[in-house]
Amino acid sequence: MPPIPDRKLEERILNVAQRLWRTRGDKGLTLRAVAREARTTTPTLYKRFQNKKALRLALSLRVRDEMNAELFSSPRLEDVYRRYLRYAEQHPHEYELLQLAWAPYVLVPGNNRPGRTWVLSQLAARFGGEPDEYAQFFDTLFLTCHGAATVLVATEDARARQTIRDNCIRACDSLMEHVHIFLDSRKPARPRA
């Protein structure tokens, strides 16, 4: 009789990988350690994840989905970037993992980015127009928050973190108040009379 596949194995592997990443970072995330703690063998792990890079990508997608669930539950767009910064501060290792996964494709058109799609649709619903009209605005907002979050997770000084957080939120609030500037910049300039 053939062995019965363990349907929960992949979830167990990802749970262990996330715990190892959170506590030990990239150096602690070895396929051998994950296999041992997930109560499986290294060859079985290799059947599901070709290498450490593939495991890291699967883990980053999982973390992205967790972060997006937090962001998508925001009652207002202004809460999205506040939650984004809070997520990065509360989960610095997971945010580091997201950065590794985002780097090759974050601003490349056509890549599946559910958070971006959701925010664009929220902007269009609130301010009018089509979601794609807000792409430049979203990229500016994202890069502002990402830059602040990157510094936040690298800074141990509580006062410095508060200043960074406050400045980022003020900048994002100002961007939201002036979203029309980004929309107007896409229209050709009118000739002077």
What does this structure look like?
The chain is mostly helical and 193 residues long. It has two domains: 1-49, Homeodomain-like (Arc Repressor Mutant, subunit A), CATH 1.10.10.60; 62-184, no CATH class. Helix content is 73%, strand content 0%. The protein contains ten helices and no strands. Helix 1 (9-28) crosses helix 2 and helix 1 (9-28) packs across helix 6. The chain is globular.
Offer a concise description of the structure:
This protein is mainly alpha-helical and 193 residues long.
Topology:
Elements: H1 9-28, H2 31-37, H3 42-48, H4 52-72, H5 77-90, H6 92-102, H7 114-127, H8 135-154, H9 158-177, H10 179-184
Helix pairs in contact: 1-2, 1-6, 2-3, 4-5, 4-6, 5-6, 5-8, 5-9, 8-9
Index terms:
single chain, 193 residues, mainly alpha, Arc Repressor Mutant, subunit A, 10 helices, 73% helix, disordered C terminus
- In terms of per-residue confidence, which ranges show pLDDT below 50 for 5 or more consecutive residues? 188-193
Report the span from N to C terminus.
86 Å
Class by SSE composition: mainly alpha
Number of DSSP-assigned strands: 0
The averaged pLDDT comes out at: 87
SSE order, as H and E?
HHHHHHHHHH
- Report the portion of residues in β strands: under 5%
As a whole number of angstroms, the C-alpha radius of gyration is 20 Å
